[in-house]
Please model this.
Amino acid sequence: MCGIIGFVGCEEAAPILLDGLERMEYRGYDSAGIAVRSETKGLQVKKCKGRLKVLSELTHGGADLEGTLGIGHTRWATHGEPNDINAHPHISENGQIALVHNGIIENYLEIKEHLMKLGVTFTSDTDSEVVAQLLEFHYNECHNMLEAVGRVLRRIEGSYALGIVCSDYPNALIAARKDSPLIIGYGENGNFIASDVTAIIKHTRDVVYMGDGEIAVLTADSVDVFDDEMVPLEKKHSTVDWDVSAAEKGGYAHFMFKEIMEQPEAIRKTISPRIREGRVVLDDVSVTAEYVQDISRIFIIACGSSYHVGMVSKYNWERLLRRPVQVDLASEFRYSDPLVDEHSLVVVISQSGETLDTMAAMREAKRRGARTLAIVNVVGSSIAREADDVLYTWAGPEIAVATTKAYSTQLVLMDLIGLYLADLLGTVEKSEYDDILVEVQALPEKMQSFLDHFEDVQYFASRYFNHNSIFFIGRNLDYAMGLEGSLKLKEISYIHSEAYASGELKHGTISLIEPGTLVVALGTYAALFDKAMSNVVEVKARGAEVLAVTTKSFQEKMEKTADSTIVVPDTHPILQPSLGVVPLQLFAYYVALQRGCDIDKPRNLAKSVTVE
Ligand code: F6R
Model:
């Protein structure tokens, strides 16, 4: 997804901008550019299609662009193909205004036609250039940049994070946001704007999250933030509490691998502040037993892997709470005229806290009277700020596009919430409550013991990496876990893969099984292990090669039938997916490695999906 950085201060801007853009590379992009302003050279712009390396070479590491005020952008094409011209920054017709934009301007065509009739010439196919040209148009009318920005924001529709530099304002960087993240960073040698904290963490941890409709004016030693009526605002500062090394590879070949290995610690950080004296404590959630009694239905809404967490939680929460739990894809929910009301609890799950569909679904649920609880990893993100309650996963920054540690922390946090709600409802026996809590606390260690010896996963990946199509089968929690295993594999290795509830095989899919087809059979859910085994036998009988994942307790039985078996430690049944998913992540990783794929930046994918 697009990335923005801006700097104004007393150091050369271009190297800072290039470094910041590099730190946001993980988000996915197809072109990049920077604009820097200096007294002597005015506004200088360099942009090009392709990797940042190309831009860096083009500008000699930024040395060619002189000045201490500038903006930079990595673009992920939405309107207009990826090429040099469509790359940001966009320059207004007279060359006086440079602008970077994240988001989508929905009424750009109408504005473009209007400006063209007035004689404005456009050079790109983008919606973003329209904002630059409209800004020049209004600036020429009123000769006041802030007033012109205000007029533009009232005219455009859609989502935006904007960084603006104008030749007539040699010391000021202007920013604005609506439905697309933008933060302000307060540094010692200047101030920053960025769409992602990773871009500026090297320089400062002192940040302000801009709100919707807000406009900011930054100089080297001041920051002023205004609301949409230009009334000055007092903004609350936040401190980013993770270290710069958290967003670096630290000796690992890939962020994905590093993040897989960080899972035990991430889980520890997520659970330990929430378990006190043998009880789950959710300090940030203010729900009472009466409120929970009054809930008639729980909705879990998310996209992608976060949705898969929801699938696991549906099984677990229905078992613990004895209440109907519905899991919905955010992109479907928002347009489904959902049956949500004030008796619904809507839980939204999002690592980034910026996924547009999830945010829109949450807003729709709120509009219909539901109470919303967000499970989010990025502090201060849009979903976190808009939800009635928010619980953070403390996974730290996740850089690889394919989620691993965010998924694991979401899963364990959902288990804790389930337990907490069940306790309020009185639907869980004390002994089971205690058992689950003991096992939750043992998860990091058990996961670590698996991560200390996973050579067999690496070996199986080298044995199976050249399959063109791979099926994941399982029942109940194993099915939910298989959905995630299959997604991991397809997104980074580009192998076609499907996950099926094993019982569904004979209703159609089994016709795809032929001699040599690889089936990853998940048999970790104890209650249905024997049923899962019959499905393994079924696919074996059709010639499938079976790679199984099971627990220590069922190892012997599974090894009798499967061709290859990976064994994870036993835990309480509802927590088993937390351990079972780890070999699936590693399998996907090593298969992708064998196939020479760009693991941290898989093709066509972006880390946070802020467009529909
Ligand atoms: C897959 C993956 C995606 C995200 C999805 C939702 O590895 O990362 O499927 O889970 O785009 O993103 P968030 O959780 O940020 O809302």
